[in-house]
């Protein structure tokens, strides 16, 4: 129990899955997922999967500035034996506590030593105990190619943490982790996924765009040999005629970066993500608001609140990149380097590009409709479908799922504008903020601050800082 408590607690900063360990005030009863290391992830079909999220060890030879498990931090240390953790996972599964395992680890002795033990644990789980549930395994930067391949054959998802949004921050905060040691396993995973045909070739997500045109972090210099484009292309040619052999990390790869520890702007964070999505075909980039748990002269002070609202806006902007056809350069082309913390990034973009609005919903292309605040995939499709038979009227929009309160400032219906304010960025912004203040965005004022503070206190208390 003590090991489990320490190693599950140490894993809570890793967010390469959508975690929801909600704290319940009345502890000691059943079902609380807060302290037990059980988190929730969501499958592509929306199904919720409970995962045991735990480290194999928190004994670390590295000394990353931001990390509670770093070598020089005085915290209790523990390690699981591979068989011990495999048995624990199976027993939890049998009792229906979990449906899968999220296994990460500090770097004990060396990357290969740690990876070898992770592999032992996963192979025991799969081959000795017959566990067929979901496994998400962390890949230690610097791991050998062979060990990584074998881990990929027993895990459903792999993730290598990019850790920081820029080379400079990585060098400052995690000097023992080299950019090449992070990108080499990412590249190997991508190439193997392409070879086994789990991934399509370049251009599936960012069709028509050049690789590596927006980041100073993930340029060709960041890769050990050749450009990402070369590597993907050569893997594709290898894949021609290749038969699907064993399943390798069928759920793809993800990564995580910490935001708010360094000085990167939102634009530069998202440019790094854009390149990660393009170059390595990431399923997700996860963002983790930096929680100050260690004293360091180069990090924000311990009393600094984690930038949760910023994290939220970056997740929203990330969504725009992946599903709405936006690029980072577009999002920031006519504004500063940061997102407006008070507004949804799509609204911010629309207000900064008001010359592209209002858009006539009866003639706009699907891509234009998708850029209108308040209109999503489904409503854009419904508008396109109805237009084939009859003109879309303003009253129809609500029935199609459009958020009228937001969209009305940016659309025309049959040539008519329905916004109740003059068509100017500040006026629309104020009106939207007022409107939202009665809804969830009231949280961005007092409620949000209260929640941020509550979460901060809770996380600091859990980390033993207060
Ligand atoms: S490698 Fe760095 S981030 Fe990972 S556990 Fe060790 S100190 Fe923490």
Write structural notes for this entry:
- The protein is α/β, with parallel strands linked by helices and 466 residues long.
- It has a domain at 1-159.
- Helix content is 40%, strand content 10%.
- It is built from 17 helices and 10 strands.
- The chain has helices at 2-10, 82-94, 111-128, 145-154, 167-173, 179-195, 228-239, 266-280, 308-323, 328-331, 345-352, 366-370, 377-387, 394-399, 404-407, 425-437, 446-462; strands at 38-42, 48-55, 100-104, 134-138, 157-159, 253-259, 284-289, 359-360, 411-413, 416-417.
- The strands form 2 sheets. It has a 7-stranded mixed sheet.
- Helix 8 (266-280) links the parallel strand 6 and strand 7 (284-289).
- Helix 3 packs parallel to helix 4.
- The chain is globular and about 70 Å long.
- It starts with a helix and ends with a helix.
- Residues 18-22, 202-216, 219-245 and 440-445 have low confidence and may be disordered.
- The chain binds iron/sulfur cluster.
- Iron/sulfur cluster (SF4) binds at residues 60, 62, 64, 67, 69-70, 106-107, 174.
Topology:
Blueprint: H1 2-10, E1 38-42, E2 48-55, H2 82-94, E3 100-104, H3 111-128, E4 134-138, H4 145-154, E5 157-159, H5 167-173, H6 179-195, H7 228-239, E6 253-259, H8 266-280, E7 284-289, H9 308-323, H10 328-331, H11 345-352, E8 359-360, H12 366-370, H13 377-387, H14 394-399, H15 404-407, E9 411-413, E10 416-417, H16 425-437, H17 446-462
């Amino acid at each position: 129990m003590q090991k489990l408590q320490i190693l599950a607690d140490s894993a809570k900063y890793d967010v390469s899955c959508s975690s929801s360990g909600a704290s319940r005030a009345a502890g000691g009863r059943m079902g609380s997922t807060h302290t037990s290391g059980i988190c929730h992830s969501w499958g592509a079909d929306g199904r919720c999967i409970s995962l045991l999220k735990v480290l194999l060890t928190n004994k670390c030879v590295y000394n990353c500035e931001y990390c509670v498990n770093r070598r020089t931090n005085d915290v209790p240390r523990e390690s699981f034996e591979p068989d011990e953790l495999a048995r624990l996972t199976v027993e939890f599964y049998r009792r229906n506590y979990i449906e899968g395992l999220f296994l990460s680890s500090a770097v004990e002795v060396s990357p290969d030593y740690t990876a070898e033990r992770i592999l032992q644990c996963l192979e025991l789980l799969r081959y000795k105990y017959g566990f067929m549930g979901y496994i998400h395994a962390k890949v230690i930067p610097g791991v050998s190619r062979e060990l990584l391949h074998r881990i990929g054959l027993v895990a459903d998802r792999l993730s290598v943490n990019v850790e920081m949004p820029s080379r400079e921050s990585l060098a400052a905060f995690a000097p023992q982790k080299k950019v090449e040691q992070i990108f080499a396993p990412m590249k190997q995973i991508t190439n193997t996924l392409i070879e086994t045909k789990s991934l399509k070739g370049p251009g599936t997500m960012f069709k028509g765009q050049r690789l590596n045109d927006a980041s100073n972090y993930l340029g060709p210099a960041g890769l050990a040999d050749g450009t990402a484009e070369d590597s993907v292309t050569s893997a594709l040619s290898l894949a021609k005629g290749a038969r699907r052999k064993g399943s390798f990390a069928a759920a793809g790869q993800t990564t995580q970066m910490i935001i708010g520890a360094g000085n990167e702007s939102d634009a530069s964070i998202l440019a790094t993500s854009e390149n990660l999505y393009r170059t390595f075909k990431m399923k997700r980039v996860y963002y983790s608001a930096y929680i100050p748990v260690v004293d360091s002269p180069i990090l924000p002070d311990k009393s600094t609140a984690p930038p949760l609202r910023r994290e939220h806006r970056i997740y929203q902007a990330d969504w725009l990149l992946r599903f709405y056809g936006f690029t980072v350069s577009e999002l920031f082309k006519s504004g500063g380097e940061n997102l407006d913390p008070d507004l949804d990034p799509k609204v911010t973009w629309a207000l900064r590009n008001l010359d592209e609005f209002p858009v006539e919903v009866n003639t706009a292309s699907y891509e234009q409709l998708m850029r209108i605040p308040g209109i999503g995939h489904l409503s854009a499709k419904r508008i396109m479908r109805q237009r084939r038979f009859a003109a879309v009227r303003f009253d129809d929009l609500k029935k199609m799922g459009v958020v009228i309160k937001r969209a009305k400032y940016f659309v025309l219906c049959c040539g008519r504008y329905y916004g109740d304010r003059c068509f100017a960025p500040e006026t629309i912004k104020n009106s939207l903020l007022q409107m939202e203040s009665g809804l969830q965005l009231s949280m961005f004022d007092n409620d949000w601050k209260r929640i941020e503070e509550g979460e901060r206190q809770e996380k600091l208390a859990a980390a033993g800082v207060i």
